[in-house]
Amino acid sequence: MKIKEIRAVNVNIPHTPPKTKPRRPTWNRSAPRALPINKYPEFSRLPSQMPGMGGGQVWVRITAEDGTWGMGACSFGDSVAVLIDQTFAPMLEGRDCLATEYLNDLMWRSMQRLGAAGHAAVAQSGIDLALWDLKGKLLDLPVYRLLGGPCRDKIKLYATGDDLDWSMELGFKAFKVTNPAHYEMGIEGLNLVEEKLAMARETIGSNAELMLNAVMSYNVEFAVQIAERLRPFRMRWLEEPLIPTDLEGHIELKKSVPWMPIATGEDHHGRQAFRQLVEHRCVDVVQPDLKWCGGLSEAIKIYTIAEAAGIVSIPHGGGNTPFGQHFAMALPESPMAEYWLGTDPGIPLSEVRSIPGMATPIEGCLIPSDAPGFGMEIKEEWIEPWG
Ligand SMILES: [Mg+2]
Known about the structure:
Blueprint: E1 3-11, E2 58-64, E3 69-74, H1 77-92, H2 100-110, H3 119-139, H4 143-146, E4 155-160, H5 164-169, E5 174-178, H6 186-204, E6 209-213, H7 220-230, E7 237-239, H8 247-256, E8 262-264, H9 270-279, E9 285-286, H10 296-308, E10 312-313, H11 322-330, E11 337-340, E12 365-366, E13 383-385
Parallel strand pairs: 4-5, 4-11, 5-6, 6-7, 7-8, 8-9, 9-10
Antiparallel strand pairs: 1-2, 1-13, 2-3, 4-12
Helix pairs in contact: 1-3, 2-3, 6-7, 7-8, 9-10
Magnesium ion binds next to loops.
């Protein structure tokens, strides 16, 4: 079966507003966070308003010559849509749509001049995910079965967000909070983080896992001091303390605080970046983002590199996408999935905007759809040309 067409598209999913009234606005509207750019105080501390964070979701539709179509998604708007439509589509159209390894190798090799990372890896991700959805539809199997799963009855989730009371009420048993400090803040930042994590540990009790999401806003010196301050709170991991290109920093950090598990990977792209982390044993949990790292095919290569070293893979935002849900259902050394929880407390997750057909958490767990492909129920009339 050959690929007839690859296109970046928009999907306008209709949504009924929630029936339930919120108790209060979500933490996500007001909690100050830190990214690398927040070294400079002129920039907002809300990620939605920071340079480099926008552009929006890009959907990819791949149509086979018999009219069957699959959908994938990635991020970063126009700059990625151009690569999909103008570089990858002409190279891949007319080729065997089931040959996902071959098609990925073409994309990966054609992008070496751009490092096969950044926007190139993101565009490749959207196409790869659409190819997997299409393959599932053509073979009439859910993607987790194509990957060799299921390996568990249901996926355990951890909740990312600062409304810990609401996350606990929803039945989550593991929690990751946001980071309010940039290394530029010095001792004031250290104090802020220590106070926040002390309160979080007190709220969730001693039997629940606790994580902190630094999103690249520390340097090695600050990360070491944070790790020392947080030692009493028995952290499951400290996440993404450093920028992804600072391999030596990751090595130094792990040597300095060997008792603090380090998780990272949502901003690492491609197998080579993860191979370096794993071979230097400076990471304890790898977190590829399936919409950014090169796609599901690349994430499986990353998983295999980590698995061989006894390191678990817990993809970034995995529980929030059908792609991550199928990954977690299929792969043994992926013991839980992230569920980013940024909706208003009080509104049940079943009333929250979502992709039709995608599973919603119940009591901190979920079971992915067993419909063909990723199980998304996207109607043709919701699909519009990009731009
Ligand atoms: Mg993160």
